Amino acid sequence: xxxxxxxxRLRKLRDAMQENGIDFYLIPSSDYHNSEYAAPFFQVRAYxxxxxxxxGTLLVSREEAGLWTDGRYFVQAAxxxxxxxxxxxxxxxxxxxxxxxxxxxRMPEGSVLGFDGRTLAxxxxxxxAKELQGKNVKFRYDKDLAAELWEDRPALPCTxxxxxxxxxxxxxxxxxxxxxxxxxxxxxxxxxxxxxxDDICWLTNLRAADVACNPVLLxxxxxxxxxxxxxxxxDALTDEVRAYCKENxxxxxxxxxxxxxxxxxxxxxxxxxxxxxxxxxxFTVLRQITLNRGHKLINRPNPTLxxxxxxxxxxxxxTRETYLADSAVLTEFLYWAKHHAAGLxxxxxxxxxxxxxxxxxxxxxxxxxxxxGYGENGAIVHYKPEQETAARAEAKGFLLVDSGGNxxxxxxxxxxxxxxxxxTEEMKKHFTLVCAAMLRLAEAKFPEGCTGxxxxxxxxxxxxxxxxxxxHGTGHGIGFVLNVHEGxxxxxxxxxxxxxxxxxxxxxxxxxxxxxxxxxSHGIRTENILEVREWKExxxxxxxxxxxxxxxxxxxxxxxxxxxxxxxxxxxxxxxERVYELIAPRLKDAEIREWLKEVTRPL
Amino acid sequence: xxxxxxxxRLRKLRDAMQENGIDFYLIPSSDYHNSEYAAPFFQVRAYxxxxxxxxGTLLVSREEAGLWTDGRYFVQAAxxxxxxxxxxxxxxxxxxxxxxxxxxxRMPEGSVLGFDGRTLAxxxxxxxAKELQGKNVKFRYDKDLAAELWEDRPALPCTxxxxxxxxxxxxxxxxxxxxxxxxxxxxxxxxxxxxxxDDICWLTNLRAADVACNPVLLxxxxxxxxxxxxxxxxDALTDEVRAYCKENxxxxxxxxxxxxxxxxxxxxxxxxxxxxxxxxxxFTVLRQITLNRGHKLINRPNPTLxxxxxxxxxxxxxTRETYLADSAVLTEFLYWAKHHAAGLxxxxxxxxxxxxxxxxxxxxxxxxxxxxGYGENGAIVHYKPEQETAARAEAKGFLLVDSGGNxxxxxxxxxxxxxxxxxTEEMKKHFTLVCAAMLRLAEAKFPEGCTGxxxxxxxxxxxxxxxxxxxHGTGHGIGFVLNVHEGxxxxxxxxxxxxxxxxxxxxxxxxxxxxxxxxxSHGIRTENILEVREWKExxxxxxxxxxxxxxxxxxxxxxxxxxxxxxxxxxxxxxxERVYELIAPRLKDAEIREWLKEVTRPL
Lengths: 603, 603
Hints:
The structure is a homodimer. By secondary structure, chain A is of the alpha+beta class.
């Protein structure tokens, strides 16, 4: 993007600010639902700054403009902001002000901060309001200046919604809503407002494709004790979905008028909402309508969160089958990569696995952008190969591929690190330790009440003992035909004090993905998805265990048995035996079956 | 105790309640400092109820009386309360009311609840006040009715204080108080009130023997930015201690007048205190004097807590030597027990080890009542043998001995389970798994920031994998010439959400004491004390490790190598090799040295 264009856009933005009496205008990166990926419609910050990273905040005053982003993007942001007149502020770097510190320092007494309140997290807005009240700063948060200024702005995403049939969802909306209402009652509330898209989709059994990689429907939902109001774009609805909603007593309202509708709503009792999942605009409206009626606004995690996380038997059956199908395709890809990846770019390699998944029955979309990192790029945890800059794989070292799909019967996620040729002894050691780490967590037996904070060290112990570690969580929850990253459970040894630590429960899915990343050299990650199952009850308590959903070989060329305990070896042999048993019958090509037999042979 | 005597005491108590306008009188079990053990002076609940358990609350109204205690004491309490007219309320049993529920149910509008506010935790008092305000209940908390009614009441403990010399404490009071004041400043406070006895003793480097097994001085301390006021009984002070206080600018005040003095104190700024460690009386006075002056009362963990937990190099050197001396005596005891315990009672066995410790140089007291549990009594976690009821050990099964001492150079704690004769295969399996659990935690390497919640599973993993578990924490912090149970760190997989989870840090001491308890059959616990040390720094972070302080053999007769991994075996052999190296030179008796060589031989 030409810096002159950005300067011109900023000039127009400042004119509009002046017209609207706004002194500082804030542009966050989020959509209206704090989704993991923001659609082109929401790329307002990129439009006005030229900075295209996934995370960043632009702040424009009459004289200055600043962009805040994190360490992943310092180099890219500096390049893209050059000559735009926008100052780069580096997040989490000592001495650099935060957005709030900047505002506290620069905003004059009684000045006006403008922003589109639908794109700012409620928690952030509340904090800013509190911290800036001493300066008597006013908020103008009902104005999306991009609506007037952004020519050729892409449309709001609007894909056709569809119903997940009961033989797939395993639980009809009417049962789910009864369960949610029981929780509302337990919390002393009569109204629930949902803004989290995957929660709304889980509850209604509706799906769409409004967020990249997330099969969700842009919507809000207001649930009372006897009604449900679904705010959705009219064009998203088919006749089938309209009929389904009517049948289920769900009143359909216009998405674009959500705020206006809610503002006029008179709750009959306390209102339940999850402050970490609503925008500042929604929070403000909910507070107003609740207090107006003398009721309370109760801030608690959405009751849908835990219900959604614990998959029902039908969801589990579909998930298991979907992972077997996905694992078979991945196995074919691994065979292909071993033989053909050297010489191709990471981008081409990612295209290959993406194309293979796209041909699978029931394929909806990728569940996230495929990571294919060769050599030192494997050490960049959130690496995404771009066509222009992707590295070319050679017949040596490691290729790391983290990929997954959304299907009509489940959501997959898997990582394998593939040996393309010669390895150093250190690479083998690292690969073997990561393999042991992954297996040890998968083998865990633990009593009810255990959380990911307790269990994370099952994976890390073997790395820590060698002075190694990885700077990401060991695992995240996974949705069912929904988001690949789903709470509330996770496998992390450190969690924020404010984050509740949720015990693992039967039917939860978690990823198990330890890694080792050596900057400038190589990166290794091995990821299976696990299902939480009941194990046994003894006089010492009720115990749970994991069962793998993923069945794909772990490259034996990089295994150095010297770094495996007897138990590790046994666990790997047992796992590989099951991989062959379950996957071989799904492989059409006899040569690949033969190869699978070879790579899954016992150590 | 004759029930008639109790009824007579209750009659007099009710007369005194009437005279003082009190409708309900509450008698908790605590001393003024919420110490782990309450001195005879504080056994008011036992005096009025006849119930002598360590934990319980008596509530007396004009017509009724109730006693609340926990599961450990249901049988004993039912027996001791018989015919007294006091109703037993079982804590944590569904359907039984809590004290607060009882009060809410029974107290009439506007009635008066009396108690000695110095013996009630501030948190409890505040909760009661909040919950009973709807009924307009008034508190009369300045009246200790036992002061008038309890004839021959034992005196308040008052032992002679002594100074821990600098070559033992490693850090003079003036340095410690400077560190504490830096924390006070960081918290925006100018005054600190300390009620926690071990915190006061750590800060002042004073010790005494006012609480059983805790070498502490009954005292309060008020620290300002340039003064310190120590409230202490005049008789506790020797000339040496008076001179020491004067030298260090510590003004000595009368302990019995603490509340009166504090009530008249005018703080110059915000006041820091730790609500979980002060009584309701102290809290109320602090709140009053702070608000009177327009300052804030800041509730945070005592800044002494973490400073005390991280032992300095001098403390560590003394601790290491003290544990070696203690381990040598324990080894002699183990030899004795293997040969002579069968035929003796648990009480006599406890007397033996207690007597051996009492003869050690620098001995002050036991650090807790010795647990010597034979056979099925080993499965009772907090078992204490009494002369009349102790079981007699036989030449079979296990004897569990958990014991420790306070010395002028450290505080010890150690558990060994001793084989007295024939064992079942299951007993050997359990013993071996507990040994592996203990060693695995001891062998842990972990990055800075790790807490006991992360590491607890290092010990439990091997038990959980067999469906086994133990219902207590794996470890607690330990004081230096102070309390054997010391915070803030611990090794527990479950901690209350309200309890901060403190990362392990260099110089901290923790116990490592997994166990298996099979009711009616046997109990096993093996406990070493560990010191947290720096291990190494790599590109992945700064790592810590543990080093054992305890060096005593783990009975090889109960080890079944089938339940040990190669690493476990290696760790056990390495540990036993060090036990022999370090302890053999300290044993005078050649026969015991020979025996030690034998029991520490490699597997």
